[in-house]
Design a protein that fits this description.
alpha+beta; nine-stranded antiparallel beta sheet; 211 residues; 5 helices
């Protein structure tokens, strides 16, 4: 009998914890609006806003989404997509899901370390992927995630951090950041340089949006 009562109490505890992780803390958590990200980031200037269809916003479960094209003085362009969410880890997913779902083929992947002295740790690890398309040049993608003020290249580490923040802090904040650069004339190094230069300018600004 005592064993049954103990098991019941354990079940109630974990059931309550699960409900808290799923639903707790929403009403009292504020967040800096990612849509106020500056139009000018370092030497990069906003060139175009990307509009998202309502069904995409519905799938993500958050309207804190931006898509922008930035251009620097040398004429280099990058496409930035950021998804931010509070208490909603399902809003994030690796970019290869979307790219391959849209018909692109993953042609290569790896990791890159970018030194950024202005941020915590002075370094950010990003995923690097190359996608082949049937309608133009290949695309270089640099991708990373945030949870709180920390950045992750590993999607599952970000997801774990979000869950533990919900458990111990009562709320979680996260972001997925993707930078897309067209590989022109098969010059992958130039595309990589443009993307890394943009990320170096972006990260010190982006840190305040982790709140």
């Amino acid at each position: 009998m005592k064993k049954s009562i103990v098991l019941l109490l354990i079940f109630i505890f974990f059931a309550g914890l699960s409900l808290f992780v799923l639903y707790g803390g929403r009403s009292r958590v504020s967040s800096v609006d990612i849509k106020t990200l500056p139009a000018k980031i370092g030497s990069w200037q906003l060139a175009e806003d990307i509009k998202f269809q309502e069904r995409v916003i519905d799938i993500l479960g958050t309207d804190a989404v931006i898509g922008r094209i930035y251009r620097d003085k040398a004429g280099r362009t990058v496409e930035l997509i950021i998804v931010k969410a509070v208490n909603n880890r399902s809003a994030f997913h690796p970019p290869e899901y979307c790219m391959t779902g849209a018909g692109s083929e993953l042609a290569g992947r790896g990791a890159v370390s970018i030194a950024i002295p202005e941020i915590k740790g002075g370094l950010v690890e990003v995923n690097e992927m190359v996608f082949s398309t049937d309608h133009g040049n290949d695309i270089l993608v640099h991708n990373f995630y945030a949870a709180g003020r920390d950045y992750y290249s590993n999607f599952y580490l970000q997801q774990t951090r979000i869950v533990t923040d919900r458990m111990f802090k009562g709320f979680s904040r996260g972001m997925a950041v993707n930078v897309y650069t067209e590989i022109k004339f098969d010059d992958k190094e130039s595309a990589r340089s443009a993307s890394e230069d943009f990320i170096k300018a972006l990260l010190p600004v982006l840190t305040q949006y982790s709140e």
